Amino acid sequence: MNTPRRADAPRSRPPASRTGGALDRSLGRLPDPAEEVDDRGLTPTARTALAGLPPSLAALGHRFARAGHELALVGGPVRDAFLGAVPHDLDCTTSAPPEVTEEILSGWADACWDIGRDFGTIGARKGDDVVEVTTYRTEAYEVGSRKPAVAYGDSLVGDLSRRDFTVNAMALRLPDLELVDPHGGLEDLRSGVLRTPASAVQSFDDDPLRIMRAARFAAQLGFDVEPDVMEAMEAMAGRLEIVSAERVRAELERLLLSPWPRRGLELMVHTGVADVVLPEVSALRETVDEHRRHKDVYEHTLTVLDQAIALETGPDGPVPGPDLRLRLAALLHDIGKPATRRFMPGGTVTFHGHDHVGARMTARRMRALRFDKQTTKDVARLVELHLRFHGYADAGWSDSAVRRYVTDAGPLLERLHRLTRADVTTRNRRKARMLDAAYDDLEERIAALRQAEELAAIRPELDGAQIMAELDLAPGPVVGEAYRFLLDLRMEKGPIGQDLARQALRSWWAARGE
Description:
Keywords: ATP-binding, Coiled coil, Magnesium, Metal-binding, Nucleotide-binding, Nucleotidyltransferase, RNA repair, RNA-binding, Transferase, tRNA processing. By secondary structure, this protein is an alpha+beta fold. Helix content is 50%, strand content 10%. A hairpin with a 6-residue loop joins strand 6 (137-141) and strand 7 (148-152). It starts with 43 loop residues before the first helix and ends with a helix.
């Protein structure tokens, strides 16, 4: 979470904004402006979506009203209803303090728990439905603090005014589902634009994580961003330093798993937010070569990400989308290039070793963002292996080399297939067809070998106990050496049977002179 952007760092082209053209409505995400609203402020689309709410939610609204308090569905569920999606996250806000909220919920729910009393949030479950209720509040980060200071508010309108964006600053009073929209969120939703209820500078100063949320919602909703929001993101990107790495990572994950991650990433790079969160991606712009001796690595990376996403499968396929590991690997696969770029005699450019350098850089950045160990290991491994196939394209591999490719990829093989295919962005159609055909051939050979040898579970013909019995050894490092010898033999020769494996093992042992 460091490495601020240099003042002279090149800028990428800006993403779509209010000045850059409206969102293409063919995406099918925007409410129809022609839809009329009823006396509660609801459109036909919203009424249809809200019909899917559990009846118990209205009953809960009546309970709060009888206790003299307000209750409203708020934020994302309201936004999604106007987009035609049945709300699943039942996030509510109330005038009741947390202790009263807990008392009311306890008489309604099958189970009730304290999610974050310091933040005024109580959770409850009624049947299969889970609701979270938060007391009206305001919050802001203190200077130097990584945690927001919370103060309870006294009105629904006041609570909505502290929300991140107008499209999330709408509420539906319960039990009647009456729309409360003091900041024009529905109109912004219809226009496909992200705007803040207060000034963008004030909003981001109150909670710097909203800078990341702007990029995430641009990717999630496909929305444009108001120019003042983009300007505030650029001016205040450094404020993200006070936000915990875990919270930043969570927003980055949501962005990458969104329908249009490229949109959010371009916004991050253009505003300098990526200089703080993903400086290695920002640095790809530095490889732009005005003499066109090699491709634009930054644009290539975004294209690889798009193509990798297009290769994800449905839920029953080998790589169900959205797949975080594949998308991270596509985004980070070339981050080793700036450090390895060399200009050669004759005007050529090389990036030798960028796969291994990039794998180390990937692991460092993911650890800094507090990704879990397995995801970090998997993504770094994909980055390390993403160039391996090119040796096959240049010259056919032996069966041994194919086995090693599969073994080195392990459970990441299907993701590696897609990353490698997505990495082809050449405009030379003949070269693209050649690479595609070569990879088709490699996959066919892998399938044939797997069928013949159960390649996914390659092991030597003799296990550790058999090795010790054959050579009369006690457990120790030498057994591991013998095991690796037999594994290499298995890779090289394929299945040879236990008798030949024993002969080879004895020959190896004799050659050691022991």
